[in-house]
Each structure stands twice: as C-alpha cells, then as structure tokens.
C-alpha cells in the first residue's frame, strides 16, 4: 500500500476509535444477566409518578417504555433517566428470536424484606432486577410468565429536543426536575445561574431532582449539567425566563450527545 494512503487510513481509524470511546463508552458494553417482572396494566397508568420525579410520563415524554430498577441498579436516583436495552433469554416465555426493547429508568422497585429474594423479593439487594411496565414486558415475552430471565446493557438515550426543567419550590428554594435527558441520560451535578448571580451549585434532592437555596425570583435562569456516566458538561443558557414560576416546565435547546 502507498505510504500516504496507509497513514490516511491510520488517521481515519484512530478518529473512528476516538468517536467510539468519547460518545458512548458506556453503551454497547457486555450484556449482563438480570430478571424482569412488570407492574401495572396495559395502560401503564400505575407506573406514572415514580421515584425519579418525572410525574406523568406521557407529559414528560417517556411514555410506557419505562422501568423501575431494583435498589442496586437505582443507585440513589443517579440511574434515573438512563436507557437500557433488554432481551428475554432462556425461557420458553420469550418471544421468538429474543427481541430487544429499550426502556428508560423512571422509578425504584423497593426491597420487600418480607419475601425471599429468590421468591417474590426480586428487588431486594443484591439482585439486579427490572420491574417493567406491562407494555414494555409484552414486547419481549408472554406476560403470563410473571418473571423472566433477561440480558440487559446500557444504550444511549435518543431524545427529541432539549432537556426540560420542571420547577417546584418558591422564591428561596428552587427544586428542579430534569427530564428528557439524551446521551447517557443521567445527571451527576448541576448548577444554576441567575441573571444577577454567579453559578450556584445545586444539591441532589431525590430521583432526578436538584435544588438550590437561593433567592432567584425575577431572574432568568441558566443551568450547567454534568453527566453521571460520561462527565460531559453542557450549558442550558436562559432555560427559564425572568417570569419563571413553580409548577411550570421549561424547555431548553441543550442536550447531551
Ligand atoms: C461546585 O461544583 C463544581 C462542579 O461540580 C465543583 O468543581 C466546585 O468545587 C463546587 N463549588 C463549591 C463551592 O462547592
């Protein structure tokens, strides 16, 4: 091979390698084993208002493709928003060809200390377990199975549009629920900047919510977010106008890649 062509190929290959690792090193990893059940019915109505704080999942954009995670997978809420590809394996109840489906973590499946972790206490530590919505379960297996063995792995979250911020609190306490997060889907740290303040670090409240104890009324607000998995940092400038109020949801143009 011509020497210059050879070096061009090397450059292309190494650029491809860098893109592969920097964009989604967490995705496409090895499949891990877990088990899965479902909660609620075909409407997925009971799965709304989970421990991540997304509220109504139709309004927040997640729909019925969601799951509650056992304690070890939930990771104190830092797994909220992460996306998982799930396949039914090694069960006569799996649909033919072990089709895969993708779900977003929106809830915790709490431990049930009254039941053995191999007989009903599926979400007890140290088990990795997914409690899917019934529509998600029905994509991979016959729901009559009740519980199935699965393989799962992280995948990048494909979202339309920017990150959304749902506001709660008051003029001295801002509580923000972070939704529609793309890429790794998760948040490690977050800061807010009022139009008349510097950056103020927010603390993790619960699920996918972060808070600042500051007087921010009457100021437009920008947010700085760092992903839990990739440590990528992005800025959502002027995500909320100076007229912001609790109870409202604001859409930004920023999202993780
Ligand atoms: C605020 O958060 C940033 C990023 O996480 C960190 O580097 C910095 O030390 C924090 N500042 C304070 C005052 O805690």
TrEMBL record:
Residues 49-162 form the Expansin-like EG45 domain. This is Expansin. Causes loosening and extension of plant cell walls by disrupting non-covalent bonding between cellulose microfibrils and matrix glucans. No enzymatic activity has been found. It is a peripheral membrane protein. Pfam families: DPBB_1, Expansin_C. It comes from Brassica napus (Rape). The keyword Aminoacyl-tRNA synthetase does not apply. It is found in: Secreted, Cell wall; Membrane. InterPro entries: Expan_Lol_pI, Expansin, Expansin/allergen_DPBB_dom, Expansin_CBD, Expansin_CBD_sf, RlpA-like_DPBB, RlpA-like_sf. Keywords: Cell wall, Cell wall biogenesis/degradation, Membrane, Secreted, Signal. Residues 172-252 form the Expansin-like CBD domain. Residues 1-24 form the signal peptide. GO terms for biological process: anatomical structure morphogenesis; plant-type cell wall organization. The lineage of its organism: Eukaryota, Viridiplantae, Streptophyta, Embryophyta, Tracheophyta. Transmembrane segments: none annotated. GO terms for cellular component: extracellular region; membrane. SMART domains: DPBB_1. Belongs to the expansin family. Expansin A subfamily.
């Amino acid at each position: 091979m011509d020497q210059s062509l050879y070096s061009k190929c090397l450059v292309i290959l190494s650029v491809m390698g860098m893109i592969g690792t920097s964009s989604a090193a967490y995705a496409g990893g090895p499949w891990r084993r877990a088990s899965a059940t479902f909660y609620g019915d075909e409407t997925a109505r009971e799965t709304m208002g989970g421990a991540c704080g997304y509220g109504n999942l139709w309004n927040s954009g997640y729909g019925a493709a969601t799951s509650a995670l056992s304690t070890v997978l939930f990771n104190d809420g830092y797994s909220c928003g992460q996306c998982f590809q799930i396949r039914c394996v090694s069960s006569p109840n799996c649909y033919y060809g072990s089709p895969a489906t993708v779900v977003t973590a929106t809830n915790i499946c709490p431990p049930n200390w009254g039941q053995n972790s191999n007989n009903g206490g599926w979400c007890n530590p140290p088990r990795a377990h997914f409690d899917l919505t019934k529509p998600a379960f029905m994509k991979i297996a016959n729901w009559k199975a009740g519980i199935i063995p699965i393989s799962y792995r992280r995948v990048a979250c494909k979202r339309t549009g920017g990150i959304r911020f749902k506001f709660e609190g008051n003029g001295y306490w801002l509580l923000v629920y972070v939704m529609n997060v793309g890429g790794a889907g998760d948040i490690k740290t977050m800061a807010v900047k009022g139009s008349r303040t510097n950056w103020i670090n927010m603390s993790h409240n619960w699920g996918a919510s972060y808070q600042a104890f500051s007087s921010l009324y009457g100021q437009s607000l920008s947010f700085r977010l760092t992903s839990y998995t990739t440590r990528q940092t992005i800025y959502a400038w002027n995500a909320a106008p100076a007229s912001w109020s609790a109870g409202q949801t604001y859409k930004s143009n920023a999202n993780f890649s």
